[in-house]
Amino acid sequence: MTKPAASVGAGDVLTFAQGRQIRVIRVEAAGMRRGPAPEAQALYTDLTPVPDPCEPPPVRKGPRPTKKHRRDYEESRRPPLE
């Protein structure tokens, strides 16, 4: 195991979390300059396994409801007046 600040070079394999997905990347070459995305993508190979099509996608929760949303929900849940 190396230190987090260790240099990365050609042939190194990196594993990291990106959102809820685990990515596995093999560095092919070191870039000489900061350039456009297609140039950067040519410097690594993505080894991340393809997700199983039978596995359901992760559930994405929306933003926290506002006070107005909660009031509207509570209003819709009240029984009708007789």
Brief summary of the model shown:
The chain is of the alpha+beta class.
Write the layout of secondary structure elements.
Elements: E1 13-18, E2 21-27, H1 37-41, E3 44-46, H2 67-77
Antiparallel strand pairs: 1-2, 2-3
Question: What report would you give on this structure?
Answer:
By secondary structure, the protein is an alpha+beta fold. It has a domain of about 45 residues. Helix content is about 20%, strand content about 20%. It has two helices and three strands. A three-stranded antiparallel sheet has the order 1-2-3, with no helix packed on it. It starts with 12 loop residues before the first strand and ends in a 5-residue tail after the last helix. The relative contact order is 0.13. One of its GO terms (molecular function) is RNA binding. This is RNA-binding S4.
Q: How many beta-strand elements?
A: 3
Read across the widest sheet, the strand sequence of neighbours is 1-2-3
Largest sheet: 3 strands, antiparallel
- Bulk shape: elongated
Helix content: 10-25%
| Residue-averaged pLDDT | 85
Distance between the termini: 71 Å
Give the radius of gyration: 23 Å
Low-confidence runs (pLDDT<50, min 5 residues)? none
Q: Which class of secondary structure composition applies to the elements?
A: alpha+beta
Q: Helix and strand succession?
A: EEHEH
Beta-strand percent range: 15-25%
Q: Count of helical segments?
A: 2
